[in-house]
C-alpha cells in the first residue's frame, strides 16, 4: 500500500525509493508540508540520502513483510545467486587462483602466496627465493588471487626487457590473464591519452620507464592497486663516499612505491654483499624503516622472504632439487696458440697502460673494450680473428675521418662497477660490447693510430695462422666430452641433451659448424643469442625441448636469460664469465623445478694463461667448499666478490700477472673470498633463510585440503555459464572431449568486461585438465578470472539483481521448520578505512534469529515452491519482519568478534614491529644529523667549509622528525581494527515440505 509523507518514520522498510530494492529508513526530516529528507540503509548495508516530494507518494509503499517480497522467479534467483557466488568465490575459497590456473604449486610457493603475501594489506614485500624456485608462478598466483577477490583491478608489471615477453606468456598460458605489453606502438596509438590509464593490466620494460621522461610523467599521474618488479635488484642505489647515488632505475623504484597500494619486488640476488647498499635498496619498500647508512644487518622480518633451493621440499617431504656437480676441465694452449695469446695480451696491456695515462671516463671505456678483446682471445681462434679484423677496419675508418677533418663519433662512458653489480642484463652487455670493442682506443692522433694499426695487422696475421692450423685445443677438449659415450648416452643408449654456453656470437657460430660436423647432422645443433628474435627463440627452445633429434643447444648469456631448459641436465661452460653471478644464472637454466636428474657442469679453462690461473684457483676452492655445502656455493658466489670483484682480479692478472707479489695477492683474495667468505655467507643465509619443517608441510597439506573442500566445482561453473550466456544472447556449441566453441559473444557482454573479449572463441573448456598450454591454438579455461566468464557473471547479476533483492521461496527436504537463507559478507577494516580482510558465506536464520552455516550453495539442493506460496506463507511468519535485523545482530555479537580475533593478532604484531623499527631508525638518523650539524656549525665558525652546511643537516633532521610523526599517526590508525556491519547481499525463505499450505 502507498505511504504518505507524514507516515515515513525511522525503522520502516520502504519499497519504491530505490529501483528493485527495499530500504530501511534511518531518519526522516520534514522540510515544509510537501518534502521530506530521508536517510536510509540499502539492502547491501550502504547509507544514502534522498529528498522525496508529495508527488512521489504514489511510488512509495511499505514492504509487505520484512525487507523482501519473496516473489522472485526461482530460476532467476538461483542463476543470479550462482553468478554472485562464483563472482565472490575468492571470499570463500582461500585458494581460488590455484583451482583456476594451469599450475601445480609446491609447498614453498603456497606458503609464499597464502602465508606471506596475501595476509599483508597493503603489501610491501621482497620475494627473494633462489633462481629456479618459481617466483613468477608465485607472483602469478598472487596477482590472480587479488583480481578474483576484487582487491586489484589495475596491475603493472615491470621487468627487464628480455623478460617481458616471457611474463606475458606465463600469465596468459598458466593463469589465463591477458596483460598488454607497453610497446612504442601502443604508446603512439594513444597519442593524446595516458597509455597507463587506458591499460589496467600492463607489462613494461624497466629501462623503457626509467629512461623515458614522457612515460615517467604519465606514469606519475596514475594510481595502481599492485605493481610487481622482477629482477628488482637492478633498481638498487649505491653509496659513494658519504653520498647516495640514485640511478634512474632507483628513482623509478621510488616513484612506483608512491603510486601503488601493493608493491612486490622480486629478485634472486637481493644482496650485493654490501649491507649499506642492501638497506638502501630496502628503502624502496619502507623508506622510514631503512633510512640512513648503517653497516649492521637489517631486520627484514615481515618485508622479505628468502628460501634456498637446496632446502625446498615436495609435499611428500622429498628434496625438490637434485644435486649439482661442477668439474673443471683444464687444458694447455698449443705453442702457436700461446704465442698469439701472449702477443694479444701484450697489446691489451699496452692499450690499458695508455688508457691509464689518459685517465677520465675514456680510461674506463678503452679498458672495457680491451678486456672484451682479451675475453674473445680466450674464447676461440675464430672469435679473436674476427674481432681483430673488425677492430682494424674500424680504426682505419677513424684514421681516415681524422685526415678528412670529419668529426669522430664520441665514445660512450662505461662504468665498470655497474657490470659487476649486475645492473645490466646480458643482452644489454652484449650490445655495449659490440658497440665499443671495435672502436674504443687510447690513440688520439693519426700517428698513434698508425702505430696501433701496424700492431693490429700483425696480430690479424698471427690469428689467421692459428685459425688455419686447425689445432684448437679448447675445441679438442669439448669434442672429447661430446664423444664420451658414458656422458652423452643414458642407460638405455638414448642420447642425452646438452647445453653449451659461450660469450660470443663468433664462437657460437664456429661451434655450431664444428659440432654439426662431429655429430654428422647439422639439425642436431641449435643456437640462440641476443640477436635472435622472440618468435625464433621460442621455436628453437621448443625444438630443443620436444624434438629428440635436437641434442645440443648453444647459447650466449643474452639468450639464456629466462629460459626453462630442465629437459637437459648437462651443461658446459665453453667460456667462463667474468661476472660470477652468471655462473649460477647459467646453471639455473637446468637446475629448476621439474629437474629430476643430477645436474652436471663442466668448465673449460686454459690453465697456462693469466686468466686461466685465476679461474683454476677459483674453481679449486669452489670444489673444496662444495664438499661441505653442496650446490649452495653457486648461490652466493656473486656476493662473495662484493669487496674485490672477480673482474679486478682478472685485470690484475692480465696486466701484472707475471709479478710474484701480484700472483700471491690474487691467491690470497680468492682463498679468503671463496674460502672464508663463502662460509660466512652461507652460514648467514642459513640463519636468515626460511625452512620447511614436517609440521609446516602437514599444515600446508591441511590448508590445501580445506581449500579443495570449498572449491567451486567445474560442472557448477559450466552449467551457470551456459545458462547465463544463452540468456544474454550468446551462442555456445559443444565440441569433442569436453571442449566447446563460443560462436558469438554479444556486444553488450563484450562491453561489460574489464579485459579484452573476442567476438568468438574456437576452443573453450570448463575443465582445467583440458587446457593444453603447449598447443598454439590455445584452449581458454572459462573460470573466474577469464574476461568473458567474468563479464557474463557481472551482466547476469546486473540484469537479475531484482531477483536477489526481492528473494524467493524454496523447499528443502533437509529442514523441519521455515528458515531465512542469507548470503553475508563480513569485513575487517582499519582506522584508515582500508580493508584488512573479507569473507562471504551462506547462513540459515531461524525464527529466534539464531544463525548457523548453510554450506556453499544450499539453494541448489532446494526445489521451487508452488506458485502463490509466498502470499500464502509469508504473512503467517511474523518473525520474518525483523529476521534480517536479528541475523545482523546475531552475527555482530557471535561471529564478528571471532573473525576480528582471527585477523587481528598477526596484523598487530607486524604493525608493532614496524613501529619499533621505524622509531628506532628515524630517531637515530635524526640524532646523527644533529650531531653532524653541530660539528658543521663549529667548522663554519672557524671559517672552514664543511661537506654539508649545518643548516642543511638541521633541516634534514627536522624533516625526519616530521616523517616519524606522520608515520606513527598512520600506524595508530592501522592498529585500530574493527569489523564493519555484516552486509546481507540476498535472502530466500526456505520451507520444509510440511510447511507447504494444503491445497484441499
Itemize the secondary structure elements and their pairings:
Blueprint: E1 13-18, E2 21-30, E3 35-41, E4 47-53, E5 61-62, H1 74-87, H2 96-99, H3 107-117, E6 124-127, H4 135-148, E7 155-159, H5 164-175, E8 180-181, H6 184-188, H7 195-198, E9 201-205, H8 206-211, H9 213-220, E10 224-229, E11 238-240, E12 243-245, H10 248-258, E13 260-266, H11 275-282, E14 304-305, E15 324-331, H12 335-358, H13 360-379, H14 381-404, H15 416-420, H16 426-437, H17 446-469, H18 473-483, H19 485-488, E16 498-501, H20 505-519, E17 525-528, H21 534-546, E18 552-555, H22 557-560, E19 570-573, H23 581-587, E20 599-606, H24 610-629, H25 632-635, H26 637-640, H27 646-656, H28 660-688, H29 694-710, H30 714-727, E21 731-734, E22 739-744, H31 747-752, E23 761-765, E24 780-781, H32 787-799, H33 801-806, E25 809-811, E26 819-829, E27 835-845, E28 851-853, E29 863-864, H34 869-873, H35 883-894, H36 896-941, H37 950-975, E30 978-979, E31 983-991
Parallel strand pairs: 6-13, 6-14, 7-9, 7-10, 8-9, 10-13, 15-20, 16-18, 16-19, 17-18, 19-20, 23-24, 25-31
Antiparallel strand pairs: 1-2, 1-5, 2-3, 3-4, 11-12, 21-22, 22-23, 25-29, 26-27, 26-30, 26-31, 27-28
What does it look like?
With 1000 residues, this protein is α/β, with parallel strands linked by helices. The strands form six sheets. Strands 8-9-7-10-13-6-14 form a seven-stranded parallel β-sheet, with helices on both faces. Strands 25, 26, 27, 28, 29, 30 and 31 form a seven-stranded mixed β-sheet that branches. It has a six-stranded parallel β-sheet with strand order 15-20-19-16-18-17, with helices on both faces. The mean pLDDT is 85. It contains 37 helices and 31 strands. 42% of the residues are buried. The longest helix has 46 residues, at 896-941. Among the domains are: 5-63, SH3 type barrels, CATH 2.30.30; 95-290 and 301-307 and 692-696, Tandem AAA-ATPase domain (Rossmann fold, 3-Layer(aba) Sandwich); 331-402 and 410-469, no CATH class; 713-802, no CATH class; 808-895 and 982-995, no CATH class; 898-979.
Amino acid at each position: 500500500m502507498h505511504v504518505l509523507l507524514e507516515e515515513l518514520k525511522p525503522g520502516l522498510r520502504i519499497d519504491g525509493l530505490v529501483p528493485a530494492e527495499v530500504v530501511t529508513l534511518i531518519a526522516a526530516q520534514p522540510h515544509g508540508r510537501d518534502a521530506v529528507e530521508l536517510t536510509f540503509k540499502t539492502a547491501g548495508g550502504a547509507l544514502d540520502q534522498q529528498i522525496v516530494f508529495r508527488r512521489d507518494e504514489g511510488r512509495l509503499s511499505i514492504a509487505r513483510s520484512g525487507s523482501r517480497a519473496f516473489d522472485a522467479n526461482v530460476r532467476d534467483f538461483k542463476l543470479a545467486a550462482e553468478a554472485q557466488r562464483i563472482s565472490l568465490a575468492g571470499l570463500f575459497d582461500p585458494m581460488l587462483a590455484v583451482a583456476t590456473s594451469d599450475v601445480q604449486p609446491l609447498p614453498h610457493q603456497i606458503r609464499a602466496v597464502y602465508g606471506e603475501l596475501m595476509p599483508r594489506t597493503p603489501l610491501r614485500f621482497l620475494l627473494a627465493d633462489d633462481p629456479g624456485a618459481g617466483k613468477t608462478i608465485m607472483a602469478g598466483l598472487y596477482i590472480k588471487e587479488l583480481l578474483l577477490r576484487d582487491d586489484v583491478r589495475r596491475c603493472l608489471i615491470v621487468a627487464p626487457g628480455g623478460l617481458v615477453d616471457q611474463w606475458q606468456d606465463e600469465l596468459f598460458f598458466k593463469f589465463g590473464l591477458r596483460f598488454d605489453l607497453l610497446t612504442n606502438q601502443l604508446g603512439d596509438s594513444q597519442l593524446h591519452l595516458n597509455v597507463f590509464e587506458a591499460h589496467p593490466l600492463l607489462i613494461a620494460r624497466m629501462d623503457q620507464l626509467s629512461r623515458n621522461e614522457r612515460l615517467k610523467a604519465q606514469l606519475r599521474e596514475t594510481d595502481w592497486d599492485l605493481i610487481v618488479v622482477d629482477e628488482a635488484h637492478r633498481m638498487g642505489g649505491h653509496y659513494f663516499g658519504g653520498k647516495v647515488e640514485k640511478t634512474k632505475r632507483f628513482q623509478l623504484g621510488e616513484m612506483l612505491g608512491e603510486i601503488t597500494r601493493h608493491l612486490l619486488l622480486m629478485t634472486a640476488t637481493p644482496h650485493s654483499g654490501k649491507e649499506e647498499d642492501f638497506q638502501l635498496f630496502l628503502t624502496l619498500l619502507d623508506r622510514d624503516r631503512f633510512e640512513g647508512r648503517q653497516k649492521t644487518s637489517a631486520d627484514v622480518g615481515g618485508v622479505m622472504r628468502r628460501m634456498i633451493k637446496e632446502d625446498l621440499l615436495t609435499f611428500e617431504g622429498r628434496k625438490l632439487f637434485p644435486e649439482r656437480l661442477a668439474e673443471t676441465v683444464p687444458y694447455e694452449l698449443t705453442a702457436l696458440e700461446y704465442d698469439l695469446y701472449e702477443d694479444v695480451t701484450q697489446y691489451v696491456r699496452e692499450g690499458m697502460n695508455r688508457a691509464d695515462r689518459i685517465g677520465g671516463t675514456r680510461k674506463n671505456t678503452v679498458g672495457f673494450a680491451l678486456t672484451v678483446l682479451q675475453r674473445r682471445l680466450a674464447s676461440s681462434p675464430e672469435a679473436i680473428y674476427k674481432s681483430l679484423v673488425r677492430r682494424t677496419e674500424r680504426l682505419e675508418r677513424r684514421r681516415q675521418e681524422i685526415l678528412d677533418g670529419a668529426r669522430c663519433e664520441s665514445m660512450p662512458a662505461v662504468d665498470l662497477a655497474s657490470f659487476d653489480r649486475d645492473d645490466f642484463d646480458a643482452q644489454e652487455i652484449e650490445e655495449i660490447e659490440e658497440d665499443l670493442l671495435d672502436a674504443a682506443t687510447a690513440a688520439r692522433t693519426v700517428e698513434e693510430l698508425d702505430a696501433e694499426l701496424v700492431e693490429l695487422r700483425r696480430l690479424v696475421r698471427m690469428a689467421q695462422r692459428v685459425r688455419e692450423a686447425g689445432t684448437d685445443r679448447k675445441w679438442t677438449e669439448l669434442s672429447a666430452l661430446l664423444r664420451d659415450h658414458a656422458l652423452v648416452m643414458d642407460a638405455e643408449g638414448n642420447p642425452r641433451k646438452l647445453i653449451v654456453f659461450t660469450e660470443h656470437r663468433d664462437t657460437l657460430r664456429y661451434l655450431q659448424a664444428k659440432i654439426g660436423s662431429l655429430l654428422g647432422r647439422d639439425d642436431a645443433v641449435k643456437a640462440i643469442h641476443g640477436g635472435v628474435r622472440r618468435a625464433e627463440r621460442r621455436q628453437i627452445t621448443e625444438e630443443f625441448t620436444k624434438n629428440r633429434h635436437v641434442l645440443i643447444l648453444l647459447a650466449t648469456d643474452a639468450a639464456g636469460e629466462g629460459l626453462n631448459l630442465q629437459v637437459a641436465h648437462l651443461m658446459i661452460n665453453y667460456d667462463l664469465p667474468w661476472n660470477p653471478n652468471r655462473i649460477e644464472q647459467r646453471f639455473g637454466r637446468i637446475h629448476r623445478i621439474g629437474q629430476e636428474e643430477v645436474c652436471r657442469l663442466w668448465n673449460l679453462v686454459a690453465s697456462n694463461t693469466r686468466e686461466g690461473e685465476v679461474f683454476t684457483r677459483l674453481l679449486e676452492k669452489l670444489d673444496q667448499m662444495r664438499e661441505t655445502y653442496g650446490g649452495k656455493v653457486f648461490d652466493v658466489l656473486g656476493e662473495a666478490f662484493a669487496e674485490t670483484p672477480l673482474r679486478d682480479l682478472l685485470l690484475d692478472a692480465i696486466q701484472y700477472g707475471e709479478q710474484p707479489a701480484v700472483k700471491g695477492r690474487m691467491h690470497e683474495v680468492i682463498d679468503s673470498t671463496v674460502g672464508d667468505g663463502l662460509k660466512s655467507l652461507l652460514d648467514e643465509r642459513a640463519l636468515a633463510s626460511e625452512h620447511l619443517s614436517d609440521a609446516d608441510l602437514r599444515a600446508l597439506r591441511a590448508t590445501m585440503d580445506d581449500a579443495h573442500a570449498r572449491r567451486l566445482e567445474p560442472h557448477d561453473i559450466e552449467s551457470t555459464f551456459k545458462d547465463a550466456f544463452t540468456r544474454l544472447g550468446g551462442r555456445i556449441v559443444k565440441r569433442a572431449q569436453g571442449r566447446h566453441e563460443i560462436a558469438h559473444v554479444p556486444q553488450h557482454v563484450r562491453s561489460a568486461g574489464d579485459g579484452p573479449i573476442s567476438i568468438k572463441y574456437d576452443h573453450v573448456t570448463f575443465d582445467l585438465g583440458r587446457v593444453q598450454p603447449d598447443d598454439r591454438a590455445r584452449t581458454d579455461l572459462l573460470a573466474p578470472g577469464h574476461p568473458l566468464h567474468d563479464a557474463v557473471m557481472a551482466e547476469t547479476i546486473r540484469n537479475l539483481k531484482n531477483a536477489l533483492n526481492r528473494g524467493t521461496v524454496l523447499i528443502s527436504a533437509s529442514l523441519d521448520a521455515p528458515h531465512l537463507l542469507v548470503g553475508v559478507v563480513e569485513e575487517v577494516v582499519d582506522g584508515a578505512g582500508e580493508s584488512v580482510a573479507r569473507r562471504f558465506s551462506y547462513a540459515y536464520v531461524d525464527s529466534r534469529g539464531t544463525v548457523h552455516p548453510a554450506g556453499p550453495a544450499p539453494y541448489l539442493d532446494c526445489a521451487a515452491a508452488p506458485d502463490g506460496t509466498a502470499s500464502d506463507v509469508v504473512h503467517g511468519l511474523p518473525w520474518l519482519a525483523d529476521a534480517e535485523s536479528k541475523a545482523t545482530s546475531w552475527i555482530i555479537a557471535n561471529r564478528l568478534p571471532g573473525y576480528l580475533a582471527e585477523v587481528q593478532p598477526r596484523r598487530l604484531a607486524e604493525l608493532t614491529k614496524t613501529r619499533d623499527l621505524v622509531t628506532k631508525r628515524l630517531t637515530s638518523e635524526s640524532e646523527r644529523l644533529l650531531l653532524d650539524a653541530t660539528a658543521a656549525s663549529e667548522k663554519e665558525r672557524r671559517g672552514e667549509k664543511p661537506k654539508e652546511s649545518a643548516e642543511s643537516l638541521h633541516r634534514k633532521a627536522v624533516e625526519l622528525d616530521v616523517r616519524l610523526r606522520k608515520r606513527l599517526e598512520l600506524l595508530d590508525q592501522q592498529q585500530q581494527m574493527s569489523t564493519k556491519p555484516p552486509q546481507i547481499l540476498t535472502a530466500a525463505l526456505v520451507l520444509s515440505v510440511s510447511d507447504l499450505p494444503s491445497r484441499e
